[in-house]
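Researcher: I'd like a candidate sequence for this fold, 175 residues long. If you have to choose between options at a position, lean toward the conservative one.
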């Protein structure tokens, strides 16, 4: 009737159909799982110094110290592979309506790492404005996260800071 190869092919096709059906159900159900992440960012100190920057001439760099207290454990479920987390400074200038600068980022791969409590965190990347000056600039600081699932769509979210902080006048030394 049927040889061994035809039977193996039928079993394999059925197994793949069931597997893809389960993966589709997981991808559809994951966005509806409840989560309530929370984060609080407190800026401790901002310093602005003048620096000779490449060929543009003199620019102002900002150095930020902040405290980060976040509980992102609710974002982890059976379909979460990892989280990409970043702290951004967001501000407006006369020449640009939206400016976003990443100050710090991290990849979180387990639920235990998702409870973040860091004090006196320094910015990891250069914080320089395109206009070469931070005069009359007020910034708010936010925590952004991207949930990378095993199966399904990448989702993201953010926790915005309530307070806006004005940049201080520049100094010539970095503490």
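Model: Candidate sequence:
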């Amino acid at each position: 009737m049927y040889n061994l190869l035809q039977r193996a092919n039928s079993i394999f096709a059925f197994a793949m159909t069931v597997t893809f059906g389960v993966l589709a159900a997981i991808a559809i159900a994951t966005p509806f799982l409840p989560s309530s992440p929370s984060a609080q960012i407190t800026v401790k100190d901002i310093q602005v110094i003048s620096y000779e920057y490449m060929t543009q001439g003199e620019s102002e760099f900002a150095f930020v110290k902040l405290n980060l207290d976040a509980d992102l454990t609710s974002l982890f479920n059976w379909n979460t592979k990892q989280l990409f987390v970043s702290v951004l400074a967001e501000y407006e200038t006369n020449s640009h309506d939206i400016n976003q600068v990443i100050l710090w980022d991290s990849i979180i791969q387990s639920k235990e790492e998702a409870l973040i409590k860091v004090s006196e965190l320094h910015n990891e990347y250069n914080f320089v404005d395109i206009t070469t000056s931070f005069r009359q600039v007020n910034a708010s600081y936010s925590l952004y996260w991207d949930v990378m699932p095993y199966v399904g769509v990448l989702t993201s979210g953010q926790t915005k800071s309530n307070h806006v902080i004005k940049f201080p006048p520049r100094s010539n030394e970095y503490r």
